[in-house]
Queue: 2 jobs
Job 1
Amino acid sequence: METKTAKLLDGKALGLKIHEQLSTKIAQLQTDVGRPPGLAVLMVGDNPASAAYVRNKERACSKVGIASFNRHFPAETSFDELQEVIQNLNSDERVDGILVQLPLPPHLDSVALLHQIAPDKDVDGLHPLNLGKLLRGESGLRSCTPAGVMRLLEEYSISLSGKQAVVLGRSILVGKPMSMMLLEANATVTVAHSRTQNLQDITKNADILVAAVGIPELITAQMVKKGAVVVDVGINRITDEDGKSRLIGDVRFDEVATVADFLTPVPGGIGPMTVAMLLENTVSSYEQRGNRE
Ligand SMILES: Nc1nc(=O)c2c([nH]1)NC[C@@H]1CN(c3ccc(C(=O)N[C@@H](CCC(=O)O)C(=O)O)cc3)C=[N+]21
Ligand SMILES: [Mg+2]
């Protein structure tokens, strides 16, 4: 029997292509602006999932010519201390982007902290002003992971207009902005989450299924419509039987690949697209700030 296999949506390849375009752009702008673009990443405490992201971001920044201003704070750092750091970065002319790595330790009010970031440096698109612009369909800094999903679908000419899109997960970082972007592209959007009943009936209807729940291999072949486009946003670090640590997504890749027409791998899918969109947001903020001076 012949089993079909989904076409891979290669986020790693597209991510590298975007890095090259950004390198060229930065090289051209740098003479006019008189400095490289700058990105500040704040990490509080030790979160292993966050550490991989920070590493990849640093590597990508240095490759394309973005200056990194990364700060790592102990888990017990106070709100006031972080607030002061953010205010200093807000007024630092060398810094175009500020990202506070989430989740923060529980004693810190992350919403209040995100309010402190200057909206024109908010490369994660989490400030209420940028979220409001997204809701209204205005251009502005947008959350990197969902922006990366949209860019990857575009690259493969996947049409969204009139299609049934199902987003699994309703986080402010991924699920909510994702559903807004799909709606903007004229998809019919359903958002499912941990309280959703009869999940399979809903996912089975999806022409486009975006899984962003952080539950390893939740999505089985049975839950996927034949010919669907499946986007796996999950980046779960697990330890396998040999004691080795590896990344797996929210989708059971091997079996879903026999049902779906298009599928993102983990790693090499949305992770590298998130990094590419972060660099792009930083450069776009740099361009705008450079023009103002
Ligand atoms: N304010 C904030 N914004 C975020 O966007 C954010 C965050 N906090 N906290 C943590 C999560 C996680 N995240 C990742 C992005 C890319 C990779 C990535 O590049 N993954 C590679 C491989 C990584 C590896 O090999 O370890 C891949 O999937 O191919 C991983 C994780 C962004 N996040
Ligand atoms: Mg949820």
Note: The two ends are 65 Å apart (CA to CA).
Job 2
Amino acid sequence: MKAEDYRHIALDDVQSTNTECLEKAQAGDPGNLWITARRQLGGRGRRGRPWVSEAGNLYASLLLIDPAPVHALASLPLVAALAVHGAIARALPDPESSLKIKWPNDVLLNGGKISGILLESGIVPDGRRAVVIGCGVNVAHAPKEAMYATATLRDAGAAVSAEELFAYLCQSMARELARWGEGANMSETRELWLRWATGVGKQITVNMPNASIEGIFRDIDDTGCLILEKPDGSLQSIAAGDLFFL
Ligand SMILES: O=C(O)CCCC[C@@H]1SC[C@@H]2NC(=O)N[C@@H]21
């Protein structure tokens, strides 16, 4: 599908563009629908954290219905990260900027988080699976009280608006979904993801809900899992967690 084949609804204030998409799906929407908002009053981040969503930044969610066989869905966060990375790269005036992907799907500009992505899913009344890819990008501002380094497109000298960045995102998302081919072509997506990844080969800590492990970030596999080499030399595959560099 090409970028123009996706529908788009632009809203003003919403709780969350992800919620809007999930509600559309429950009401029978066929999917391939982008919902954007000027502001979110209840923006959600990973692990139930809030996502501060003042006007000026990009809040965009893509609703897909049954985008791939269930076993391939775990790699969709990598597709989303590549798409957001591509859109931001296009907006940056300085081609030398360091724009990296931090596993699984944060995008970092010069080491500061410039984007977060939240995938959510649900089963619609006819039994099919709705998947929502929610993307937030710091265009004009970053949360003031963040516990981590942040970055914005404005501070990087990019004169792009949230609307213009959304147009770039539509194109890069369509391109990356087509490349991925419903998971059938994951090897190409994985290679590209690794090209932009930060921390591969480095000592890291991965925080998971009930544990935290240290080791060397060796690789990612075709399902998007991080392969960690533990101090005893054994390899552990990790499906989800927050990554920190030591
Ligand atoms: O914690 C993260 O890094 C993920 C943040 C995801 C934020 C986006 S903004 C658009 C969409 N709607 C939401 O409520 N969350 C996502």
Note: The chain has two domains: 3-196, 203-245.
